[in-house]
Amino acid sequence: MIKGFIFDLDGVITDTAELHYEAWKKLSDEMGWHFDRELNEKLRGISRMDSIKVIMDHNHVSLADDVIVELATKKNDIYVNSLESMTPDDYLPGAKELLTHLRQEGFLVALGSASKNAIKVLQQLKAMHYFDVIGDGNSVAKSKPAPDIFLYASEKLKLQPSNCVVFEDAEKGIDAAIAGGFHSVGIGPEERVGHAELRFNTMKEATYFEVRSFFSDFF
Ligand code: G16
Ligand code: MG
C-alpha cells in the first residue's frame, strides 16, 4: 500500500542545476580548471564534496583536504548568494500541482535531497508546507547512491520503503531508491533514469492521475 512520497529537490521540484553550474564555473575559472555543461551533468544529485572531487579528477588536480574544503565553501557561498533570486515562480512545471494533489489526497510527503541548502531553496519557493519531513544533506553521512537519505525520510514518516514512492532525476538517485527497496519514478531521459519503475521526461507529465494509474495495484 503506497502511503508516502519522497521527492528529490534539484531536477524534480526546481532546477537549481543552472545555479550550481554557474557557481562551479566561476570557481573553476578562478582556479584555471576546465569545467563545462557535460561535466556539470556528472554532478547531478551528488554531494558538494563528491562534486569537487569529480571536477578535480577531471582536471588531474590533487590538493590537501583543508584546501578542498575551502574551495567547496567558496563555491557554496557563490551558490547560496544566487539563491536570493529564486522565487515561487521557479517550481519546475507540474511540481507544485503534484505536491498539492498529493496533500489533498492525504499522502505523507518528504524531501530526500543531497543538498545542505535544501531548506533555503524550499523557503525561497515557499514550499515548506508541502513536507511532513525534510531529509537533506545534513541528515545522513552517506550520499546517493547509498539509500540512506531515503531511509531517513521513510523512517521519519514511520513508513516502510515499500510503502513509499521516490521521485528522482539522477541516475545515482534511482540507484539509491532501488537499493533501499522503494518504488521509483525517474524524471528525465531513458539513458539516465531508465532503470526507474516508471519514467517521465519532465515533471509536467508526472500528474497524480498518471502516477496513480501506474501504481494502482499498490494503492
Ligand atoms: C543537489 C544537486 C547536486 C548538488 C547537491 C549538493 O542534489 O543535484 O548537484 O551537488 O544537491 O548541494 P549543496 O552544495 O547545496 O549541498 P539533489 O539531491 O537535491 O538533486
Ligand atoms: Mg536531483
From TrEMBL:
Q: Name one Pfam family in it.
A: Hydrolase
Locate the residues binding substrate: 8-10, 24, 43-48, 51, 75, 113-117, 144
* Free-text comment on the cofactor: Binds 2 magnesium ions per subunit.
Q: What's a GO biological-process term for it? A: carbohydrate metabolic process
Q: Which Gene3D superfamilies does this UniProt record tie to the protein?
A: HAD superfamily/HAD-like (3.40.50.1000), Putative phosphatase, domain 2 (1.10.150.240)
Give residue numbers for the site Important for catalytic activity and assists the phosphoryl transfer reaction to Asp8 by balancing charge and orienting the reacting groups.
113, 144
Q: What InterPro entries does this protein's entry cite? A: B-phosphoglucomutase_hydrolase, Beta-PGM, HAD-like_sf, HAD-SF_hydro_IA, HAD_sf, PGP-like_dom2
- Keywords from the UniProt entry: Isomerase, Magnesium, Metal-binding
Q: Which residues form the active site?
A: 8 (nucleophile), 10 (proton donor/acceptor)
UniProt name for this protein? Beta-phosphoglucomutase
